[in-house]
Design brief:
The complex is a heterodimer of chains A (153) and B (234).
Chain A lengths: L1 H5 L1 H23 L5 H9 L5 H15 L7 H16 L7 H20 L1 H6 L1 H25 L6
Helix pairs in contact in A: 2-3, 2-4, 3-5, 3-6, 3-8, 4-5, 5-6, 6-8
Chain B lengths: L2 H18 L1 H10 L8 H21 L12 E9 L7 E4 L12 E5 L5 E10 L4 E5 L6 E6 L4 E6 L5 E6 L9 E4 L9 E10 L5 E7 L9 E5 L10
Antiparallel strand pairs in B: 1-2, 1-12, 2-5, 3-4, 3-12, 4-5, 6-7, 6-9, 7-8, 8-11, 9-10, 10-11
The chains are: A mainly alpha (153), B alpha+beta (234).
Chain lengths: 153, 234
């Protein structure tokens, strides 16, 4: 317990790798997946410092970037967890709901800005992605909250 | 060393790697991704079957007089792919220096070297190109299906669909689908028809497109660098 308390960043790095494995494998198998990676990064805004989160997001970009140089979408992916960090104190609800809302908002903003047309053409798939992302982030938030109490309860 | 300095060092190192050595990220991603479990021999046979059906449909149709398609193909290795939903892009190791241009068709070959269309070149860099596949929601292509050659519009996505099929068309499950779009080589196999049904407005028929490959499993593709794209913006 004490070790986990001292290594929040390592725990998030581990969760990030597991989430990446799950998301990329689900996408390979079914053609779509909940946004587990972005949800993990958005939740890190509730637990990590700015510098720790920046390091985690940069590692995320290193793994996920699929272009020779990072493009607009990957930049957005880097910035969204910081957006959550800056607005998290405005959320008035319990920690778990705030965490899920932060993750869902990040995913919604990400797709609204990067591929608006896809939301219009496949609203049902988009709704499923949001719903499953919300469930994942709420569960992850509760697990992490067992070890680290957040300030937004 | 203070904890903050360690994170700063980690951050700087990672940013440097992103810009100077992006392939390290692609390699790490390869390690944490499970590829498809389909047997490669089975996939080759399905590809072969689909392209033979497309040949049959083409030969039985009205376009018998057209020459068969033969391009100048270069092989390309797939480095990475789009990790989020709705789009399907592949980064390959061929670019401007190899003669790749936007809009050129990208294919995979069946065991008897018959080409199957998987997408088009979307963006070209000096040493790399981005391929937009049929699994991308922005992908659209005019196609024909079956021996009767029923016209249809292929709309890409995680489950590509054949839309605007005349509802009285004689299409059956398993019929081959081949390209007829003005920006694509005529008669390239795209896949086969599955689950033909009436659309929700009852005016047209629609069906699913079944492909013999998974875009996330592709490791080698071929680009027709001789293909002259009429309107690359389309």
């Amino acid at each position: 317990m004490l070790k986990i308390q001292n290594n929040k960043f390592a725990v998030f790095l581990f969760v990030f790798i597991i989430a990446s494995f799950a998301q990329l494998s689900l996408k390979a198998a079914f053609g779509w997946s909940p946004e587990l990676i972005l949800a993990t990064l958005a939740l890190s805004a509730f637990y990590l410092s700015v510098l720790e989160m920046a390091a985690l997001c940069a590692f995320g970009i290193l793994i996920l970037n699929w272009r020779p140089l990072p493009g607009w979408e990957i930049l957005l992916f880097f910035l969204l967890p910081f957006m959550v960090m800056s607005v998290k104190n405005i959320f008035p609800w319990r920690g778990m709901i705030n965490g899920a809302l932060g993750a869902v908002l990040s995913v919604a903003v990400f797709y609204a800005l990067s591929d608006w047309g896809a939301i219009i053409s496949s609203p049902a798939v988009f709704a499923e992605i949001l719903a499953m992302t919300a469930i994942f982030s709420a569960a992850l938030f509760q697990i992490l909250n067992y070890f680290y109490k957040t300030h937004t309860v | 060393m203070r904890k903050e300095n360690l994170f700063l060092l980690f951050l700087i190192l990672t940013v440097l790697l992103i810009f100077l050595y992006p392939s390290l990220g692609w390699k790490i991603r390869d390690l944490i991704t499970v590829s498809g479990t389909q047997n490669p021999d089975y996939k080759n046979l399905v590809l072969e079957n689909q392209s033979l059906k497309a040949d049959l449909a083409q030969l039985s149709g009205l376009k018998k007089e057209l020459p068969s398609y033969s391009g100048n193909f270069i092989q390309a290795s797939v480095y990475s792919n789009y990790p989020f939903n709705f789009k399907s892009e592949l980064l390959v190791n061929r670019g401007e220096k190899d003669g790749v241009k936007v809009g050129q068709p990208v294919i995979v070959f069946s065991v008897s070297s018959k080409p199957v269309l998987i997408g088009i070149v979307e963006e070209v860099f000096r040493n790399n190109s981005l391929i937009k596949t049929v699994f991308d929601s922005r992908f659209q292509l005019s196609v024909r299906a079956g021996v009767a050659g029923a016209n249809s519009l292929l709309k890409g996505g995680s489950n590509p669909k054949l839309t605007l099929i005349p509802k009285d068309s004689k299409i059956e499950n398993g019929d081959a689908v081949y390209s007829v779009g003005s920006n694509y080589p005529f008669g390239l196999t795209v896949g086969i028809v599955r689950n033909f049904r009436l659309s929700s407005d009852q005016f047209f028929g629609e069906a699913d497109l079944e492909t013999a490959y998974n875009a996330n499993d592709l490791q080698i593709v071929s680009i027709d660098v001789a293909y002259n794209v009429k309107n690359p913006k389309q």
